[in-house]
Amino acid sequence: MDALEVKGVVKRFGDFTAVNELSFSVKSGEVFGFLGGNGAGKTTTLRMALDILRPDAGSISVLGKEPGRGHAAEIGFLPEERGLYRAMTAFDTIAYFGQLKGMGTGDARREGLALLDRFGLGAQARTRVDRLSKGMAQKVQLATALVNKPRLLILDEPFSGLDPLNQGLLEDEILGAARAGATVIFSTHVMQHAERLCQRLLLLARGEKRFEGTQDEARATLPLRLTLTARNSPAKLPGVIAAEARGTPTEGWQDWDVKLEPGRSAGDLLEHCTGQGFALRGFEQHRASLHDIFVHIVGAPEEPK
After folding, report:
1. What is the C-alpha separation between 114 and 59, in angstroms, rounded?
2. Is the pLDDT of residue 109 over 80?
3. I need a surface site. Which of 86, 246, 250, 251 has the fewest CB within 10 A?
4. Sign of torsion, CA 279 219 199 169?
5. ∠ Cα 106 90 83 (to 5°)
6. Ramachandran angles phi, psi of 102, nearest 5°
7. DSSP code of 296?
8. Distance in angstroms (rounded) separating the CA atoms of residues 249 and 245
9. Burial of 36 (0-12, 13-18, 19+ CB in 10 A)
10. Tens digits of per-residue pLDDT, 59-70?
11. Is the pTM of this model over 0.90?
12. Among the residues of the chain, which ranges form H helices?
């Protein structure tokens, strides 16, 4: 059973189509990156999965059922717009959210204290939220999403506003939840976090899917980039679509920036050079970043109009 399945979903707000014929699935137990620029439709899609919004067309299945309140005990959600009860203490806030998700009072309080200790907030358990620093309050918000040990953890732009230390803590929590068997879906426009965490990813632009798959599958859509140090031009080697000399030759050896056709293997090119006696002094493959992939497939992120 997929943790989340979206089929042909459309969501409009007046004349504006926020999500258009969107279909994708998230496998149970994986960390899934939901990537796109501002206004791409990420938040709208997650809100439909949580039954905060209803689609105008298509269907959504969450943990094998239609979205609804009946999933509360199995889902943890960190919204993009953070919101806590400012007059409540950190401890009471986490315990309260646990009870909203169906936990018994004792279990919610025990897990709340454990999370506060884990996040280094044990001394602030009885401090009101409005007296916590911004970073501390964000940790409390994260704890409200984790308190029920959810099967499905949905995080909407979770790294927004976090300092580097707390970003690292959140990455550790995402990986820890996945090791414990949870499915984790997180939206972000910061590619570095997704590159470190996600097993599969969805690229969105203007409410439409542009790519779904693994990072390696996404990289295969780009021309492979290499740097070769050779005596002769590699332009006519099999699979080479561009070869540009770089710098000044040294003792007859020239550096070349080389691009291969998408899907071509660097290993096959090296084997060809070796077998055909094409002299090489250097052979370096460049791994495309997730940002490079995003720009190649989607284009530079646009700000909403």
Report:
1. 38
2. yes
3. 251
4. positive
5. 110
6. 95, 5
7. H
8. 9
9. buried
10. 999 999 999 888
11. no
12. 42-49, 90-100, 105-118, 134-146, 164-179, 191-197, 215-219, 266-276, 290-297
